[in-house]
Amino acid sequence: MSIEYLGLSKVNGPLIVLDGVQDAAFDEIVEIIVDGTTKKLGRIVEIYENRAVIQVFQNTDSISLHNTHTRLTGHPMEVALSPEMLGRTFNGIGQPVDDLGPIHAKVTRDINGKPLNPVAREYPRNYIRTGISAIDGLTTLIRGQKLPIFSGNGLPHDQLAAQIVRQASLGENSDEKFAIVFAAMGVKYDVAEFFRRTFEESGVSDHVAMFLNLANDPVVERLITPKMALTAAEYLAFECNMHILVILTDMTSYCEAMREVSSAKGEIPSRKGYPGYLYSELATIYERAGILQGVNGSVTQIPILTMPGDDITHPIPDLTGYITEGQIVLDRALHGQSIYPPINVLPSLSRLMKDGIGEGYTRVDHQDLANQLFSCYAKVGDARALASVIGEDELSSLDKKYLEFGREFESRFIGQDVYENRTIEETLDLGWELLGMLPREELDRVDTKLLDEFYRPAGEQSQQS
């Protein structure tokens, strides 16, 4: 028999305090009836003796100390799951907002998930093609990986996220089931509408499940959204045998919400005012990616975060870098040159790339080509630094070739149209075409046999074309 509690002891922002509670559990969901008509949901976030502190998912504007009835449900936050979720749009707490009716649930699951046994994990292999050369060629996304995008305010991470959703696939010859779970946290209405419209117009919305938490939605709801999305992804991957790509944007909004709620609870702040458990909270989200042995499915994550002040040492990107397997860094200088996507390849890396590319996955020359492009582009930086001191006219002929290579690399390899979907062969061939601008003796990161097969000096390329 459930017990209803009349009235409250305290209301503080998104938190309410209830005294005299019996048999309450941490993370338990409660139903709050305001004025006998309006129903709100909350979650117990703190228990001390017979006092419970409850986060309210909706706003608390209409709540007072004397107009509420509170009932404990006896279970944590759950979400109804079904393959029908693909092609649907939900709010931040998993309720459909697309006017297509409720989901006919196959199962319900706790949104906090269950810890994956490390022994049951399978090492990530094979790659996910995004159609973007700077990612596919140099920071390849591997199935089961978590690869964040570090962006900044005003940079085109929303367009990049939409392009990845439109173009992502398991490759040209794969017949495995692939789908995308997209979660947006704290986004403005026009940004949410941009995502929704882009997916519909490109015809990919039928294999995308969207979770949208808008900027004017309650801040507490923002803490639930990524867990909702990941619970849906785990169901589709591990119970429906699908390969799922999860895109989470913007993790900075999630962390700001965590800081706001922590401050309302009166907790002692840590770096930059964020709670001391920021690392563990981020880890509980990022670690819900991977592959299980014996299951023909995977969960791959691309979290997107905007670095406050473009500071990569800020706690959010700093802790994210510790947990994840690499990063893709967007650069403001490249964006200023109208290069899209403005990916700075030198600080970007994919730590699992080497295990999902090469012969049998992409092409035999992929790893050597990526190493050589990284090396040559690093030397472009040296040539530019020297040119800024002595002038470009005084550079050696080799340094001038590196400058020309750098310009072509940025405009043609990194830069591409927002609707351009390149195959992996097109990306690799373009890399070799650019390396043809440099003397063969400069290519010291590539096996001689691969050079014989793929390297063509720029003069020979123009003759063949």
Please describe what this structure looks like.
With 465 residues, this protein is an alpha/beta fold. The chain folds into three domains: 4-76, Elongation Factor Tu (Ef-tu), domain 3, CATH 2.40.30; 79-355, Rossmann fold; 366-464, Orthogonal Bundle (Bovine Mitochondrial F1-ATPase, ATP Synthase Beta Chain, Chain D, domain3), CATH 1.10.1140. The chain has helices spanning 133-138, 157-167, 189-202, 219-238, 251-264, 278-286, 315-323, 332-336, 366-390, 397-414, 424-435, 448-454, 458-464, and strands at 4-6, 10-12, 15-19, 28-34, 38-48, 51-56, 68-76, 78-81, 89-91, 107-110, 121-122, 127-128, 141-142, 149-151, 178-187, 208-214, 243-249, 290-292, 298-306, 326-330, 343-350. The strands form four sheets. Strands 9, 11, 14, 15, 16, 17, 18, 19, 20 and 21 form a ten-stranded mixed beta sheet that branches. A seven-stranded antiparallel beta sheet has the order 1-7-4-5-6-3-2, with no helix packed on it. Helix 2 (157-167) runs parallel beside helix 3 (189-202). The longest helix is centred in the last third of the chain and has 25 residues, at 366-390. The chain starts with a strand and ends with a helix. The relative contact order is 0.12.
